[in-house]
Fold:
Amino acid sequence: MPEPDPDTVARLERENAELRALAAKLQVRIEELEARLRMTSRTSSKPPSSDGYSKPPRAERRRQERTDCKPGKQPGAPGSHLPMVEHPTWVEVSRPARCSGCDQPMAEDTEVVSTERRQIVDLLLPATLDDHVPS
Structure:
């Protein structure tokens, strides 16, 4: 193998050093630009309008991460309600005038399929309790 020319070797070493310096500068520049890309209105003084259209992912609620419980009353937990009064002050029996399915008038002797009972509490002085019972 022939001996390389000393001028060529020196020139190649200079070019190599220049290219290494340029690569180091470009690496620093890339890191600066990537840091800029990671900046949002939450991590800098940028206004929220500069974040663009994409939204950051929502953080999961800590409670849901720990357990499989859904928010609200859990099955089997005691509920709270206003109990119905056994003997209301007044009872109103109401019958529908028309059929909800065919919109025909209801006959007096029409068989009752189901009933529903509701109580209304009027907070008057003295308080009265009305009972509405459909027939």
